[in-house]
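Give me the fold.
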Amino acid sequence: MHSASIPTSKPIIVLLGPTAIGKSRIAIEIAKALGTEILTADSRQVYRGMDIGTDKPTIAERQGVAHQLIDLINPDEHFNVGDYRRLAASSVERLHQQGQIPLIAGGTGLYIRVLLHGLWSGPAANWDLRKQLDTQAQQKGVAYVHQQLSLVDPVLAKQLHPNDYVKVQRGIEVYHALGIPLSEAHQRHRFQETPYHSLVIGLDMEREHLYQRIEERVELEIEKGLIQETEQLLNQGFHPGLSSMKSLGYRQMTEFIIGNCDYNEAVLRLKRDTRHFAKRQMTWFRKEPSVTWIHRHKQESTTHIADRIFEQIRIFLSTLDHRETQGAQRMTSSAR
């Protein structure tokens, strides 16, 4: 890879794709070529102490590239998409002031969307309603609350797994406040802000190849100590009912640890749930506008696909350079 000139506008590069496709390692190669930092867009990597199950690159794997927006809070602390947007926008501004091109990499589609196109804040929290829903979830299960969402916002309910409880709860809350589904409110808002010149690269792969990578990822996480990491979190007092502890890996390993299923069943569930999660990610990403899709071949090396992505980045930056040159020429002509 060769270096690229940096336009004076506000460009950002986004690398998105489903879990296990290799975004983190590819992003490191791109960041080194650009001489920049990685701004992680992952709603699970914000938690401290949750490393193996969220596939955080180790210090050695980061190869000296700074990673921002990870390890922000403890597993029992609250963090929402508004918090992410505020912190991410601040990091983007800092990098632009330093003459660097921010590289956003991750698989949480909503985080990427609000950074690129703004945030619809919606109505304030209804704490009484939330307490009622929490009680129902504890007594009747999260699937019961999800069924309530499907009655008022079937579009959103279809997109969310019952275990995405916070989002399910928010969907019901917005409907009670506005009288219209949250999915419709988002459609009306349409995330119209465009504060940056962005190149959004999406990675995809043949489904059977991706599923094979997912199976290998799960087995590697177990080998690295996912069960022990989950035990440590439980021993530290982080309750299985926390949103963080319900996320992929920790939910299934907790079920094994507390004796609700055996080891083999826990691993099978984790592989199955991760496949389903990847499918939901791709459904979301396919609906995003202006994504440049790059297909990763089964045996393609990280370096090779990073080279292909960097070529797209070079073209993108050259186009911005050309626009800025034309703009300067028009300003000069007008001044004469």
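Strands lie at 11-16, 38-41, 67-68, 103-106, 197-204, 291-295.
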